[in-house]
Amino acid sequence: MIETSHILIKNIYHMLSYAFEVLKQYDDEEFSSEEFENIHDLFAAILNKGISQQLKRGLFREYVEKQENAVVLRGKLDITGTIKNVIQHQRVVACEFDEFSVNNAFNQILKVTACILMRQKTVNEQRRFDLKQLMMFFSEIELIDPNQIWWNQLIYHRNNQTYLILMNICYFVLNDLLLSEENGDYKLAKFLSENSMHRLFERFVLEYYRFHHSNYRPFSPQVKWVVDDEVIAYLPTMQTDIVLSHNRKSLVIDTKYYQKTMQTYYDNTTLHSSNLYQIFTYIKNMDIISDGSVSGMLLYAKTSERMTPDITYSISGNRIYVRTLDLNQPFPIIRSQLDGFLTEWGQDVS
Question: What pTM does this model have?
Answer without folding.
Answer: 0.74
